[in-house]
Design goal:
Largest sheet of chain A: 7 strands, mixed
Strand order of the largest sheet of chain A: 1-2-3-10-4-5-6
Strand content of chain A: 5-15%
Number of helices of chain A: 10
Low-confidence stretches of chain A: none
Oligomer: homodimer
Structural class of chain A: alpha+beta
Amino acid sequence: MRKFTVQIFEAMGSSAADAAIAADCLNQADLRGVDSHGVARLGGYVRLWEKGRLNSCPHIMTVHETPSTATIDGDLGAGLAVAPYAMKVAIEKAQAVGTGWVAVRNSNHFGIAGFHAMLPLACDMIGIALTNASPLVSPTFGKSRLLGTNPIAVAIPALNEPPLVIDMATTTVANGKLEVLQRAGKDAPEGWAQDKDGNPTTDAYVLKKGGSMLPLGGDRLHGGHKGYCLGALVDIFSAVLPGANYGPWVPPFVAFLDPSNEQVGKGIGHFVGAMRIDAFRPAKEFKQHIDNWIRTFRNAQPVNPEQPVLIPGDPERLLTAERLKNGVPVQQSVIDDMKALADRFNLPFNPEIL
Amino acid sequence: MRKFTVQIFEAMGSSAADAAIAADCLNQADLRGVDSHGVARLGGYVRLWEKGRLNSCPHIMTVHETPSTATIDGDLGAGLAVAPYAMKVAIEKAQAVGTGWVAVRNSNHFGIAGFHAMLPLACDMIGIALTNASPLVSPTFGKSRLLGTNPIAVAIPALNEPPLVIDMATTTVANGKLEVLQRAGKDAPEGWAQDKDGNPTTDAYVLKKGGSMLPLGGDRLHGGHKGYCLGALVDIFSAVLPGANYGPWVPPFVAFLDPSNEQVGKGIGHFVGAMRIDAFRPAKEFKQHIDNWIRTFRNAQPVNPEQPVLIPGDPERLLTAERLKNGVPVQQSVIDDMKALADRFNLPFNPEIL
């Protein structure tokens, strides 16, 4: 699947390096169980490219910088490759002055945020990745869709334990969870979404009927205004800082929806950061304490003895091990889409690999 | 009230400058409506000082630094004065290299996080303030109290609009909200807390019965694992980075509870940051777009025409204007405590000021 993804990006004209990192990013999503952001999205990038809304061979440029910061113009490239470029700049700045922070405009969907946040781990750095996204979420007391599911990802290195990896939408659930319920013919729990008039709903199809997702927490009584604040933060750091589109102006990922004629910036935006651990204390000391933190939480008294306390990143890591062994399950519609892409670019496609 | 607070800190031996900023911090909490963190807490700081757990005249030191970072030892001072010192260092670093990030160990409770996050606004910088706190919160699937209500505060400058100010506990609600329900004889909504066995509960007294608060989101189905991740992040940035106590080892704020004999660091910890806007783009351009962001959200379609969409910081700002005009309501128990403090230090106390 990774090789096929590389071939598709190269067929669009991407450099070998960009194609490789884009494929790694989609591949990691499939391995970590975020199926909505893996190879299932490959066709989406191709369709954006066909519409001239994605530049397969961008000339990425730093347009503003200080010793610890930069603003980067992604030249409408795929976020899958633009964000790793930005993170490389952040890591170099962190090596020089302790931390590096890069805001990115004029980009496209960057896949799973966790992939980018994990890049600095190998340098004994904490990694941070944020992105804004197409508006699907209403702010507290509102019924307009003004924010995306705007994820926050943070990766923190440990010594003998695996790293802590947080990768979360700032909504109660990611959009894909509603699609899972639709396929299963099930209702959604309360607190996930509201209908077009702002009433609570359990209708899993509500987004197709003008409704919207709710910020983490759900309604005001359950702290939904805090989830809204987090989504707002991600929007402002990712887009108002670099000069990308924010709020309702964020262009849709899907090629069949046209972006708004009015623009308040360029493309969508990301914000990435790298913090050298030893800019604060010796790295080994820090990582020993992270091991202790992880073990303390992992061994905490569980409510149900069968279900130990969650450690951020554990579920995705266990699933990766399982999928590396047994393979990644791929839906027939995704296989059909891959076959169509192979035909489109005259590439061989062997579904036996799946 | 502010003058009285200054007198109490000076009576404990604090410098005039430390007493002034500590009083500003408590005073801002009262003005912004966070009554639990205002003058009501003054006696708590005095009682910690009497027990030798708070140093009224600390020798605050930078123990580690790079051009964009520092680790500071607060010498067991009041966080009310230690955090502004740390933020001053962060602002200086941001002036030099674009951003400044300071982790603080060996501190005490720092009042409202928003006060500290707002300090860089005057320099056209975004301010960030995090702190860990006494463990009251269970991680997802757990029944042990391992995290505090660990707030996140971020302040973002605007041009003609007031600044955006986010100041939120990473739990569904702050601890004080349960106390309000107790006084009103009311039950808590589901999703706020669980009993000692980890069962959902609506008992507002549950913390006194061995229960715990729930992370933002509540249970797993409603995204509680995301609130837990946020609380974990705040704990790690505030304490594992600088070498303070984390998780279950965080010393309690109340003087009648003794800290654990085992320590994994020094005191409690904070993490503050200052980001120069013009490290990313011209400040005026950014602030014009923040004005546009605020107006777009403020004018979004409300669910109920009487209740416009919330803008982070608006409710506290409106309450501040009202309280500056009409005064701050203070409970009799707080007045009694202030009277006892006045007697303790042979200070005049005139309840007419209230």
